[in-house]
Design brief:
- The protein is α+β, with helices and mostly antiparallel strands.
- It has a single domain, classed as Alpha-Beta Plaits, CATH 3.30.70.100.
- It contains nine helices and 13 strands.
- The longest helix has 21 residues, at 34-54.
- The N and C termini lie close together (7 Å).
C-alpha cells in the first residue's frame, strides 16, 4: 500500500477537485433509539478493528454519537439518536481491502439491520475509480457527491508531525464561504468545507490534525471566524486536551467535546509510505 495517486505522484497536498484516486465518505445515520445506536456502534467497532489491522490506506475511519445529527435530522422528543462517521481512502486498493474483509462484513451486518436505523445519508468527495462506482458495494451506499466547489484537501505529510490526533466536525448556519479561512491552514491532515447536501443554509466543516499548539496565525483566524457569532454545533474528538475546545466554548456553537470517547481512528497509526 502507498499514498501515490494514479499518476504515480506522492503529492504534499491533494486537492480532490483535481487529483485522482483519493476520496472520502461522510455518513449521517439516524437510529430509532439509544439501544439501536449502541448496536450500530458495536458493529462499527468491529469494522474499525478490521480496517485498522488490514488497510492502512484507509487513513481515517472514525465514528461517534452526534449531537448535531440528533438535533438536525431527528424528530424532537422521539428518542432517536444520530451517528456520524468519516472514512478517508487513499486509493482503490484501500477501498477493496476494506470492503472485502470478512471481519468487516460481519460488523457491517449490524449497520444494515433495519431494526438499527431509520435513515442513512452518505456523501462523498474526491475521485473513486469507475470500477468502485460500478460495484455493488458502492451502489448500496447511495452516496451523493458533495459540490466540488467546496474546499477539500488532504496533506499526507502533515500526518507525520507527531502522534495522536484531533478531529473537528462543525455544523453551522451560514454560507460555506464563511468556512474557507479555517480550512486552508497547513496543519490539517484532512479538511473539508462544503454546503450540506440536504440542509439548506447549513455549512459543514470536517478536519483532522495532529494535536499541537495552534500557530498565532491560525489562532487569530479562528478568533476572527468565531467573532461572527454563528449558530450551530461543534464536535471535537481528541487524544489529548485541545486549544480549540477553549476557543469554541462560550460561543453560540453547542460544543460536544470528547477525549478518547469514540470508536475507530482519525489518523491510522501505521501510515502508508
Amino acid at each position: 500500500m502507498n499514498s501515490k495517486t494514479r499518476s504515480g505522484r506522492i503529492p504534499s497536498c491533494i486537492n480532490w477537485e483535481t487529483i485522482l484516486g483519493t476520496f472520502f465518505l461522510h455518513v449521517e445515520l439516524v437510529c430509532p433509539d439509544l439501544a439501536a445506536a449502541n448496536r450500530s456502534l458495536l458493529g462499527l467497532d468491529s469494522c474499525a478493528s478490521a480496517t485498522q489491522s488490514a488497510t492502512p490506506g484507509v487513513t481515517t475511519y472514525l465514528f461517534y454519537r452526534s449531537t448535531a445529527v440528533t438535533r438536525r435530522l431527528t424528530s424532537i422528543g422521539s428518542g432517536q439518536v444520530g451517528i456520524e462517521y468519516l472514512e478517508v481512502y487513499l486509493d482503490d486498493e484501500a477501498f477493496w481491502g476494506h470492503v472485502q474483509s470478512t471481519e468487516w462484513m460481519t460488523g457491517f451486518a449490524q449497520l444494515t439491520d433495519p431494526a438499527n436505523r431509520l435513515s442513512r445519508h452518505v456523501y462523498y468527495a474526491g475521485d473513486p475509480s469507475e470500477s468502485i462506482r460500478r460495484s455493488d458495494s458502492w451502489t448500496a451506499l447511495e452516496a451523493v457527491s458533495i459540490d466540488m466547489g467546496a474546499t477539500v484537501l488532504h496533506r499526507p505529510q502533515a500526518a507525520a508531525n507527531g502522534l495522536g490526533y484531533e478531529f473537528v466536525s462543525i455544523y453551522v448556519d451560514t454560507d460555506v464561504s464563511k468556512l474557507s479561512s479555517i480550512a486552508n491552514h497547513p496543519d490539517w491532515v484532512t479538511c473539508a468545507a462544503f454546503a450540506h447536501p440536504r440542509l439548506e443554509g447549513v455549512a459543514r466543516f470536517l478536519g483532522v490534525r495532529r494535536p499541537q499548539p495552534l500557530s498565532a496565525e491560525a489562532m487569530s483566524e479562528w478568533r476572527r471566524w468565531l467573532s461572527q457569532q454563528l449558530t450551530g454545533e461543534a464536535t471535537l474528538i481528541t487524544t489529548e486536551p485541545s486549544p480549540l475546545v477553549d476557543l469554541l466554548q462560550g460561543t453560540n456553537l453547542t460544543v460536544q467535546a470528547t477525549v478518547k470517547q469514540h470508536s475507530g481512528y482519525a489518523i491510522h497509526p501505521i501510515l502508508p509510505t
